[in-house]
């Protein structure tokens, strides 16, 4: 797919134009191409209709960004302007080349998917330069074949279809090609209304619609249904409780927990899963399926305690995983599963079926992706690396942890032959973080999974201003990253390391005595918490200076302001516990009630009503603590 070299081009500093992801090879020149009304977008392929929706997407974007009106044609006419061409065998399904010269523009790829990516890059250029484009040559292809995002829709928040479509458009523009909606109880299974009736679940029709929407943007919507652990929302109901490993709950490594996992030795457990799979999978065009099976913390603690003592919990786990694999394979799908439990029993890894995909996950910057990825690679097991956006339990995000976590995953995934990257966005403990706080993680994950070396030094704040927040003032990108660094600073002031959370996010989940036990007491702790709250307040003062061009800009501003207030409330809880000032309890109660009143409309602006009461109840529970 080579194009003629461009020796006449003088290289200019690459920071004059930012692209997300940054391409593998890019050469800028001194000349320019000027779009003009009357030009055409030529679609050159054996079947021009294969390129029609891609050409329409480009035409509409150029009308928005360059105020031009271009026509589509399958003919190579003089003055065409832009040519989209499928030519030659693909070097990879998603590779593309762009050649911008004063006489015209060519996007060349071996597949429509590659052309789609090239058009996404052109749209980013037009967004920044209008109709006057620099002479430019790009040769680009991804490091990882699969570059996904997994959005948690089971920890209370189920996004509206509008929210999902908007997010899909954003992710597609960043060359993401896989999306999963993490599901425990939020699909409307016909015979299981009791489980989902208060959750505003995804319906079969909505999945069909969303699948088609993704396909048009070259994103694979992969079905996801946790199938072993994390089934609390099922097993709490009497008609399912008898399927639990621990029907009454019990002691786990997380303390006393309600029933969470299926009894793998009960034939009815597999019968339940068969019914779910038969109903769920036909709604997706994907032939992959994520069955979950992570964190089976109560396995062997109840009905199978004696057998676990005899055989080991690893054998119990593997046997049920193999049964699930047979069911998935019988339905013509490739099984994905979370790899945490099998890695606790490394001798069992070689006994895994060779045609599944292990999902190696970890969410701290120093997670051992290197050794874990190597364990799967040496056993010949296909695997993805799965970092996260570091937003859950954090309120404002954890910027530096997110950057380190994603880079660590992509570096070691590439080194050990991972087939993909699945960047996760969880909603633990009420899903209190607002969606815009995940944009930084989505963007950096998209960039690094496309090209590790090309994007290692990505100017992320500028990329967020340009492509996520559309902020002409250049405020939002740095503001969001800076807010996400306050938690790390507070950890340092407290001489602590808070895992999987920020200190102020964690303080919203603990009583005062537990906060005091974790973070200590005294004036030093109180002063550190007050300093963090002041830092958050000073940063939010920048918010009115932003000039976001998005239609939801006012909503984003309200979300950021309220998230900052909630984080400050968490800081105040640390200070209250440290200094034990009961006189402040009434003030804290008033503040929290105001936060709750403002929180509901912001939740409903992007999400369905189901789940809100469960989420808000966690915050309301703090009122008793005052």
Structure report:
The protein has 626 residues and is of the alpha/beta class. It has helices at residues 52-66, 112-129, 161-173, 193-196, 204-215, 232-235, 238-241, 267-280, 305-311, 313-330, 340-343, 369-378, 399-415, 439-450, 452-455, 460-468, 476-494, 503-507, 512-519, 523-540, 553-579, 585-606, 612-625, and strands at 25-34, 40-44, 71-73, 81-86, 96-101, 104-109, 132-140, 146-152, 178-182, 220-222, 250-252, 255-257, 288-290, 334-338, 357-361, 383-386, 420-425. Helix 14 (439-450) crosses helix 16. The radius of gyration is 26 Å and the shape is globular. It starts with 24 loop residues before the first strand and ends with a helix. 48% of the residues are buried.
Question: What secondary-structure arrangement, pairings included, does this model have?
Answer:
Layout: E1 25-34, E2 40-44, H1 52-66, E3 71-73, E4 81-86, E5 96-101, E6 104-109, H2 112-129, E7 132-140, E8 146-152, H3 161-173, E9 178-182, H4 193-196, H5 204-215, E10 220-222, H6 232-235, H7 238-241, E11 250-252, E12 255-257, H8 267-280, E13 288-290, H9 305-311, H10 313-330, E14 334-338, H11 340-343, E15 357-361, H12 369-378, E16 383-386, H13 399-415, E17 420-425, H14 439-450, H15 452-455, H16 460-468, H17 476-494, H18 503-507, H19 512-519, H20 523-540, H21 553-579, H22 585-606, H23 612-625
Parallel strand pairs: 2-3, 2-4, 4-6, 8-9, 8-17, 9-10, 13-14, 14-15, 15-16, 16-17
Antiparallel strand pairs: 1-7, 5-6, 5-7, 11-12
Helix pairs in contact: 1-2, 3-5, 8-10, 9-10, 13-14, 14-16, 16-17, 17-20, 19-21, 20-21, 21-22, 22-23
């Amino acid at each position: 797919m080579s194009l003629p070299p461009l020796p006449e081009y003088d290289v200019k500093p690459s920071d004059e134009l930012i692209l997300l992801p940054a391409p593998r090879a890019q050469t800028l020149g001194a000349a320019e191409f000027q779009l003009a009304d009357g030009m055409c977008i030529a679609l050159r392929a054996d079947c021009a209709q294969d390129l029609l929706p891609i050409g329409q997407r480009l035409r509409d974007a150029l009308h928005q960004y360059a105020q031009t009106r271009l026509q589509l044609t399958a003919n190579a006419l003089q003055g065409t302007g832009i040519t989209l061409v499928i030519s030659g065998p693909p070097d990879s399904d998603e590779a593309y080349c762009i050649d911008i010269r004063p006489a015209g523009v060519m996007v060349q790829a071996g597949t429509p998917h590659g052309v789609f990516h090239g058009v996404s890059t052109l749209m980013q250029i037009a967004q920044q330069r209008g109709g006057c484009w620099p002479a430019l040559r790009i040769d680009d292809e991804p490091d990882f074949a699969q570059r996904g995002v997994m959005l948690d829709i089971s920890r209370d928040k189920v996004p509206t279809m509008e929210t999902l479509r908007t997010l899909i458009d954003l992710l597609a523009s960043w060359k993401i090609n896989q999306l999963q909606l993490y599901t425990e109880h939020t699909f409307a299974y016909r015979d299981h209304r009791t489980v989902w009736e208060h959750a505003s679940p995804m319906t079969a029709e909505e999945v069909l619609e969303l699948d088609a929407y993704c396909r048009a943007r070259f994103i694979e919507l992969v079905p996801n249904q946790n199938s072993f652990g994390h089934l609390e929302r099922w097993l709490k109901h009497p008609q399912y409780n008898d399927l639990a490993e621990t029907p009454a709950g019990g002691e786990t490594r997380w303390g006393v927990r309600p029933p969470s996992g299926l009894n793998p030795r009960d034939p009815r457990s597999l019968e339940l899963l068969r019914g779910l799979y038969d109903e769920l999978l036909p709604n997706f065009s994907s032939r992959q399926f994520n069955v979950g099976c992570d964190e089976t913390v109560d396995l062997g603690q109840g009905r199978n305690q004696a057998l676990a003592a005899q055989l080991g919990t690893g054998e119990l786990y593997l046997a049920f995983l193999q049964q699930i694999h047979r069911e998935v394979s019988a339905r013509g799908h490739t099984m994905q599963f979370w790899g945490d439990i099998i890695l606790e029993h490394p001798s069992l890894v070689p006994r895994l079926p060779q045609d599944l995909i292990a999902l190696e996950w970890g969410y701290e910057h120093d997670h051992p992706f290197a050794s874990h990825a190597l364990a799967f690679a040496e056993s010949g097991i296909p695997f993805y690396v799965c970092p996260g956006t570091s937003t859950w339990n954090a309120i404002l995000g954890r910027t530096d942890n997110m950057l380190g976590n994603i880079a660590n995953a992509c570096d070691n995934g590439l080194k050990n032959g991972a087939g993909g990257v699945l960047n996760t966005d969880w909603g633990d403990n009420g899903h209190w973080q607002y969606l815009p706080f995940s944009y930084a993680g989505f963007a950096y994950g998209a960039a690094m999974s496309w090209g590790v070396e090309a994007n290692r030094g990505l100017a992320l704040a500028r990329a967020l201003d340009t492509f996520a927040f559309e902020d002409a003032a250049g405020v939002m990108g740095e503001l969001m990253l800076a807010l996400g660094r306050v938690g790390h600073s507070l950890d340092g002031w407290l001489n602590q390391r808070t895992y999987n959370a920020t200190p102020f996010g964690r303080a919203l989940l603990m009583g005062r005595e537990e906060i005091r036990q974790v973070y200590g007491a005294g004036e030093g702790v109180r002063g550190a918490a007050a300093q963090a709250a002041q830092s958050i307040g000073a940063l939010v003062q920048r918010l009115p200076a932003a000039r976001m061009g998005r239609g939801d800009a006012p909503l984003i501003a309200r979300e950021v302001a309220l998230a900052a207030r909630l984080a400050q409330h968490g800081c105040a809880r640390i200070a209250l516990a440290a200094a034990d000032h009961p006189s402040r309890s009434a003030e804290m109660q008033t503040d929290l009630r105001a936060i709750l009143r403002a929180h509901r409309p912001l939740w409903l602006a992007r999400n369905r009503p189901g789940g809100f009461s469960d989420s808000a109840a966690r915050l309301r529970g703090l009122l008793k603590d005052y």
